[in-house]
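go over both lines:
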Amino acid sequence: MKLVELEGSHTVQNVYDSLDLHVGQCLSVLVTADQKPSNYYFVVSSRFSKQVFTTLAVLSYKDGFGHAESTLPSPPPENEQKSIAWSMNQFRSFRWNLTASAARPNPQGSYHYGKINITRTIRVVNSRAQVNGKLRFGINGVSHVDSETPLKLAEYYGVSNKVFTYDLVKDEPANVDKLVVAPSVINATFRNFVEIIFENREKTIQTWHLDGYSFFAVAIEPGRWTPEKRKNYNLLDAVSRHTIQVYPNSWAAVMTTLDNAGMWNLRSDMLERSYLGQQMYVSVLSPELSLRDEYNMPPTQQICGIVQNLPMPAPYS
């Protein structure tokens, strides 16, 4: 399989016999039909789970006949530690194709994200705990719950202080074993270059997604993150993408420029976890309040919650 695209980015076209695809991720491969006419197996199986599920498809040549002749492809290592190491190495082999994917209007290959100064580092630690006898998941000790008034609507009308409190999630995790259940929104500065560290201190693999932005997935390693780990980052051709996996007792680092004004969701891509609180919102406000940076609310927008009878805010210009 020749990898040609990963979450909307062109990649260096490496060839793989097996590819790990984590929850919420997508990629595109090319397969060249250069074998003798016959039928061949294509195998998909679950990874990093106690019970392994496998399904087969058959690639059938035009003149192929009978049962598939080939034996089943060899799976990745079954030993958990070797399997995770194998998967991490595959992640490191994914590279941005700088001749096809660079930011416009810059000349192709000239977007050097590795030379931008980091203005903020946010360490995100996922956690789980019982709250009033019920299981909840959270981020840095906060388990998100939706409010009656949509968060962005409250912010747009200038009454966010009546709906939620900014920055309950701190940039450095403290006691992640106890969870506070509340709407979770952090304040971010427009156009800051932010480093987000995802730390997984649990025994199960995690996958994270950030709405509204792509980010550069620069590193995944076992253990705990420290600032010294930055020397291991890929600062040249990390793939620009929207999701990142974090292996058990490991960490992952991404970098992004917060240049898209709005309120964006950072969440676990495991549905159970995001539904039970492992998510938060990132509020990115433009100080100009200008149509250059963000649209006005559509006139057909439904209004609800505490803003239902409030006058419409002055439009951006």
